[in-house]
Specification:
The chain is of the alpha/beta class. It folds into two domains: about 5-150, 3-Layer(aba) Sandwich (Rossmann fold), CATH 3.40.50; about 155-285, Heat Shock Protein 90 (2-Layer Sandwich), CATH 3.30.565. It is about 55% helix and about 20% strand. The chain contains eight helices and ten strands. It has helices spanning about 15-25, 35-45, 60-70, 75-110, 115-150, 160-175, 195-215, 250-265; strands at about 5-10, 30-35, 50-55, 155, 180-185, 190-195, 220-225, 230-240, 265-270, 280-285. It has a five-stranded mixed beta sheet. The protein has a three-stranded parallel beta sheet with strand order 2-1-3, with helices on both faces. A two-stranded antiparallel ribbon has the order 4-6. The longest helix has about 35 residues, at about 75-110. The two termini are about 35 Å apart.
């Protein structure tokens, strides 16, 4: 049996139990709970390694549970929220696939596929299925890549790959706030030899910070480039902002402080006071020669 402990939090009992059974078959210990309050109790008492968390539950929703997780273990919040967004979107895609396949089955059973109008409609449905499957596959691939980046503490990677992987799973949280995400990733950046998992941990918190500082209907532009020999990731906040005393608040700074020390990286506010577009920069380089 693997040493990894997984907690599955979902008010859909059948979905949670089925997922737990599949993990157990792979010798991964999995526990299920069906509401937010029980989830917090398990997390505080047993500290699971991974939390698969649904967003919509009847008592505490997923985001409220994450507040409790954050207070207990900031790094566990990172994994929980990434997987929350992934599982919610994946379930939506699979539900549409199921309904579309049901319609195809109905058309076949009725023996009406030879009808030209129905054939055209069927083709449209098949195209929709292919698109949804493609999106679900891309999300699964991104999560898989993030998981495997933790296999070794240090590896060589491209910063643009890390950004793309993480954004594939975080887009939903921007959509909930009706905040647009744009990227401007510079090509041909040098590879970095560092801890990719910690880089994505810091990226997650800066992304979350950016969403918190913006009001609905704003935009976050994420750019990559180079500055003074380091690779620079910039978060640009466009649109109406929430009121705040400082852009990089003490809470976020405290959460990422240890990770930044390990990475030998820095996070700074790049924009001057009163600027229309606020900018946060993450600068990092290699810990050893590549």
């Amino acid at each position: 049996m693997s040493d990894i402990k997984v907690l599955i939090v979902d008010d859909e009992v059948e979905f949670a139990s089925t997922l737990a059974e599949r993990l157990e078959l792979r010798e991964i210990a999995a526990k299920t709970v069906n509401n937010g309050k029980d989830a917090l109790s398990v997390i505080l008492n047993s500290s699971p390694d991974v939390v698969i968390l649904d967003l919509k539950m009847p008592d505490l929703n997923g985001l409220e549970v994450l507040v409790g997780i954050k207070a207990h273990d900031p790094q566990l919040e990172f994994f929980g929220r990434m997987l929350a967004g992934f599982t919610h979107d994946l379930k939506n895609h699979l539900a549409i696939i199921k309904e579309s396949n049901g319609l195809i089955s109905d058309l076949i059973d009725m023996g009406r596929i030879t009808d030209e109008a129905l054939a055209a409609r069927l083709q449209k449905i098949v195209t929709s299925i292919q698109g949804r499957v493609g999106r679900a596959t891309d999300m699964a691939s991104s999560l898989n890549s993030i998981a495997h980046r933790q296999d070794t503490p240090l590896s060589t990677f491209q910063i643009n790959d890390l950004i793309s992987e993480e954004l594939a799973l975080l887009q939903r949280f921007a959509r909930l706030r009706e905040i647009e995400i744009k990227t401007a990733l510079a090509p041909d950046l040098p590879a970095i030899h560092n801890n990719p998992s910690l880089v994505q941990f810091v990226f997650f918190h800066l992304f979350n910070l950016s969403l918190r500082k913006l009001k609905n209907h704003g935009m976050v532009e994420i750019a990559s480039g180079q500055h003074n020999g380091a690779v620079l990731v910039t978060f640009r906040l466009h649109g109406e902002k929430e009121s705040f005393a400082q852009l990089i608040d003490e809470e976020t700074a405290a959460i990422i402080q240890e990770a930044l020390a390990v990475l030998q990286a820095s996070v700074t506010e790049l924009s001057p006071a009163g600027a229309a577009v606020n900018e946060i920069g993450l600068a990092l380089g290699s810990l050893a020669a590549i």
